């Protein structure tokens, strides 16, 4: 099955570019930028990656970004990811970035997006992998800051396919960002947001995302299964769910494999993705392998998962069809 998964043309739809910062690159960027890291080796950094819930993960994730300062830093980050993805036969990726994680520490939006964009263009030419950017707002910051970030993004509108919402969900429901999402839609952005696994009020947050915000996709969204009516709406609208098994295993005590099996059986457009692969030790291939093992997936199941992913991409129809 490993060979089958390796050979399968794949699609990644839930990937935080800042979550692909491997310890080796972290060291290289620290040196280039004259930053002293509190670690003496790659092993040291990996050993410090001990988290067992979302807040403990997020703390390490944001601290790790300190080495990202210049346009070439963002270029190198994205290029390293795209090289890795291409080597796993990922043909297309939609990549989240967190501009506020950078602007909040004085790194300009323009530099972040230019570095990422340049990598996407080079990767398409050099590696044959296509990708688009999704801008995420940090939900634990004020809605006004998200709105300001949305406005700041408008000159780069053509480089961003949609918006998302991530970071700490506790006490930060979808409706906090109602006005931001309304404006984003008016500007022509497609809409997604995280409804992380097993959060306080998970089902209510998914309901808000679907019914009140009107998202085009849901990131995670596993807890929708607890509500029959919600499942029905998600199915009727053909909304995709970007699920991340290995990540689930870190921030909860389970990969939620059984839930993914049920979603497949219900005919929901569930997909398998990697979230923060440098931190959770697994890119899309490893996520598929873990799931295949746990659920004894057939080749047809794996094909279905990738079909779902290509089907829910935010590509124009003719480009999407080329993958299907
Ligand atoms: C994230 Cl696992 C997870 N949850 C919420 N926000 C995030 N940003 C990056 N990884
Ligand atoms: Zn995520």
Automatic annotation (TrEMBL):
Keyword Nucleus in annotation: no
SUPFAM superfamilies the record matches: Metallo-dependent hydrolases (SSF51556)
Record-listed E.C. numbers: 3.5.4.2
Cofactor: record remark: Binds 1 zinc ion per subunit.
Binding-site residues for substrate, renumbered to this chain: 276
Signal sequence range: none
Residue ranges annotated for the Adenosine deaminase domain, each copy included: 9-324
Molecular function as annotated in GO: adenine deaminase activity; zinc ion binding
Entry binding sites for Zn(2+): 14, 16, 194, 275
Cofactors that this protein relies on: Zn(2+)
Gene Ontology cellular component annotations, sorted alphabetically: cytosol
Site residues (Important for catalytic activity), renumbered to this chain: 220
Reaction catalysis annotation: adenine + H2O + H(+) = hypoxanthine + NH4(+)
A GO BP entry: nucleotide metabolic process
UniProt KW Metal-binding keyword: yes
Gene3D superfamilies according to UniProt: Metal-dependent hydrolases (3.20.20.140)
Keywords: Hydrolase, Metal-binding, Nucleotide metabolism, Zinc
PANTHER family in the record: ADENINE DEAMINASE (PTHR43114), ADENOSINE DEAMINASE DOMAIN-CONTAINING PROTEIN (PTHR43114:SF7)
Entries under HAMAP family matching the protein: Adenine_deaminase
Described purpose of this protein according to its UniProt entry: Catalyzes the hydrolytic deamination of adenine to hypoxanthine. Plays an important role in the purine salvage pathway and in nitrogen catabolism.
Family the entry assigns: Belongs to the metallo-dependent hydrolases superfamily. Adenosine and AMP deaminases family. Adenine deaminase type 2 subfamily.
UniProt-recorded name of the protein: Adenine deaminase
Source organism: Streptosporangium saharense
